[in-house]
């Protein structure tokens, strides 16, 4: 990619996409995005720009001359829809990057989403809160706690001023506040915030939903750090169970379809993939993160309960199966078999064995991809 | 794109996000004057900063206090539980509250449920739930399942007292689940759990489920006869009692079914269980019911066997009511079997017992039954006597239904009794007889049994206006023999109505 230093026309102040300082280079693909330097362009490209580059063109073009009012309104409506779609896209991307632990990269995405949201909904709208929350979480991840606090305070204020604000937003707000306090080391306050998170999430989704499980997981972490291992253990177990049941359901739906035509199994399952409700990108990333850390924890735990490890392994295996990473799925499946050996929980070991059979039936697909 | 956003790698914390006011220009106040106003930025803010006295004197509220004020009681309770780490308790409580709300919604605003106070608004109960659930979770974590069981049981009892049946049921059910984890008492708590769940289901009308649970209970109890309940019975006896009762209930439920065998099967099981419990009264009752079922089914012999059993048990327990009931049932069975003499014997016994025990209701019933049998046999003399007794008893008790029945029966019996006399008089076709009938018509006195006076010379007396008004009866009375039956029928009708008349008449006079 070549970078063009810019000669600014008079009266036009081109600002950097990320830091709002005077810009010197332009993205050559869309020609509507400017940066103060290569560093910021690179960060933006990795974070979000790659995905939205082409979309930005139509959004940032000057308004063409349109003769009739109707046409102008039409264009406005189209733009609005596009922007809304962009908000969704950027947010999911940001969330996913967060779960993958790439906090640095999540910031541009969050910024972009915030910018669109302000554009569409105005400054004091509740719609901005999710973007603030992503920014806040990214800042926590980057260790910029005061900045995170600012973002979150802004989000909280907006939420407080909007009494009809939905529970899912509240839940995410409190989750981030909880994380913030945990990062600061204020564990009691953190627990209160996370408790609020779980409460609101339960109101919205039920106590045993994967969207509630995040709260339990963070809470478990806090208890773990406080040294109250038994409580943390119980919380981790619940998180594992929630993911386990959810993935079990997903796998069951997926394996049911290709049961009849055995030969072309993966093809069918790929086709049916779009139809069923599974996991969105952010949820997939969350599952990978949560379950892997749980697995690490269980593996190194000296006095673990035998079926805990087996459940985590099985859940992970199913997760990788859902993500079409059959090799890894098999690997964890084998671990689950080993872990469940010699323990009395028949149901679990039976379902693991069953799952392994399903895995064997599916020929390894990655070579095809 | 006007919003200033913080630089991504700027270490200094970036620009402030929290000032949206900066970007939204306030609408112009007043008409534009053409001159720019002097800027007064910040003064407003400074005014706001001036501390309000009363508030500053108050102590600052902590975050906990503000949330307690802002959020619902349920919210605060849940958050408190969660911060203490009792997440399973939270799940359970939350699920319970949710379940109630859902049931209420599905029942709709027309139902009783709609106006009931929801669990989430009953703070005392929520507190109770919280303390016990957290205790339960703590005990679970330690692996002390007996403690868990005890707490759950306590909760169940508490909600039984407060009348929250569904909650009590829930906790009894979980009690049973917990009890499967308790391994060191060879299933005693499990047995208790089965029993409690069975009782709860029985109350809900789920008799078959209750039966299954009671059977489990029995299975556990029968192998451990040394277990003793709180009221000093062995588990075994207790199980037998419950099982016997539930079988009986199911049996009576099946009464209306086409196939009577199933009903008999259940009642027989109930009887066996009652026998096993070695409680005589219970055995007797079961035998009685079984006997009645057999009787209903037309198997009088077997019925008699069981009923006699019951009678014997009642005799040995000197239970007069029971003896009465037994005699009554036996009499009925005998009657159906065609042994009327014996039946009457038993009924007389019933009357005696009832008289002795002073139970007026039973006495009245006994007399009534006896009357019916006499009536059937054509022994109207005895029948009227019995019904008379039954009727007076019923009246003294003031039992309206019984009064009405006995009144009618009494009337019928009297009518039957009188019928022969009337018929005879009609057939006689003599003036004297005719006169007597006319007499009876006006005064309703039963004098048909009296012998006719020796043929004295009858002085023809002038007809009263009343007699004049009914000449057709006299004419009819003189119909030839061929039409006699028809006349008799008409007579019968007359007697019925007339007796009813007399009855009401007597009642009014007596009550007056």
UniProtKB/TrEMBL annotation, chain A:
Gene3D superfamilies: 6.10.140.2220, Tetratricopeptide repeat domain
Name of the molecule in the record: MYND-type domain-containing protein
GO MF annotations in UniProt: zinc ion binding
Residues annotated as domain MYND-type: 16-53
Xref: PANTHER family: ZINC FINGER MYND DOMAIN-CONTAINING PROTEIN 12 (PTHR46533)
Record Pfam families: TPR_12, zf-MYND
Keyword set includes Glycoprotein: no
SMART domains named among the record's database cross-references: TPR (SM00028)
Keyword annotations from UniProtKB, A to Z: Metal-binding, Zinc, Zinc-finger
Highest taxon, organism lineage: Eukaryota
From TrEMBL, chain B:
Location(s), subcellular: Cytoplasm
SUPFAM superfamilies reported in the protein's UniProt record: TPR-like
Alphabetical list of Gene3D superfamilies matching this protein: Tetratricopeptide repeat domain
SMART domains associated with the record: TPR
The keyword Cytoplasm is assigned to this record: yes
Highest rank taxon of the organism: Eukaryota
Alphabetized InterPro entries for the sequence: Bac_ResReg_Asp_Phosphatase, TPR-like_helical_dom_sf, TPR_rpt
PROSITE patterns given in the database record: TPR
Gene Ontology CC terms, in alphabetical order: cytoplasm
Ranges of biased composition (kind: Basic and acidic residues): 483-494, 502-512
TPR repeats: 364-397
One Pfam family in the UniProt entry: TPR_8
Coiled coil: none
Segments of this protein annotated with the region Disordered: 1-62, 456-512
Swiss-Prot/TrEMBL keywords: Cytoplasm, Repeat, TPR repeat
Chief location: cytoplasm
Function: Axonemal protein which is implicated in axonemal and/or peri-axonemal structure assembly and regulates flagellum assembly and beating and therefore sperm motility.
Record's protein name: Tetratricopeptide repeat protein 29
